Input
Amino acid sequence: MNLSPDEQLQALAERLRPLYDRLANHPLYRSFETLEHLHRFMESHVFAVWDFMSLLKALQRALTGIDLPWLPSRFPESRRLINEIVLGEESDIYGTRAISHFELYLQAMRESGASTHTIDTLIQQLREGSTVSAALALCGAPEHAQRFVQTTFQIIERGEIHATAAAFTFGREDLIPEMFRGFLRDLDAGQYTHEGSQIHRSLRTLRWYFDRHIEVDGEDHGPMALRMISELCGDDARKWTEAAEAAETALRSRIALWDGIATSLKQSETEQRPVLVH
Output
């Protein structure tokens, strides 16, 4: 008997639960002890912030009318979601100015003292015509960040929009609120800051970035993204299977990225660096 889209979503959630549990309990969340640790995290995580936009743009290209002459797409619910996310991700309002969340993350990195050299080099290489693979190698990105981005583009290049949407929804949008809540708890507990510290002021943009994603991804975009999966897969069992496989790939890729960052933080413990608070 064929399952309804709602039943398919429930079955998919159960299938992905072990991977979500692994992410929720990942030791990376308990690894931040110094400002240097936070810097190392951001210097790798920024590649996930950047390649998210290519996932989003692949969905925009497939689900909205961007060609001439314009024609309405067949997926009204999905095109509304994607247009809303593009508006926020590519041109949100921070203070009084429009800015993409990627550019905002770069600002947060610079304010906190993290290096943007590697990601800046990647962007420059791409502007000069390098392929993604070549730019990743030339910029000197950490190997775990390179593998993560390569997995993202492998999913995009397969051209199966329901699979791309599943990677986007379950590996990114649906994951972000819970992922960031752990970091906010640490900030609230004062793990990185102390009263009157310049460090506290240097993390204000980063906190806004986290708060903003919890707000829009948890309350609006996450539920809408689930409806997008139902709309794109419909009653097609093959599409649901392919969507599940893409979601699993995206989640395993995220776990591998977290593993790589956690390993780099352990390596940094052997270096003589001051701890912010004890």
The first strand starts at residue 92 and ends at 94. The two ends are 58 Å apart (CA to CA). The chain has a mean pLDDT of 88.
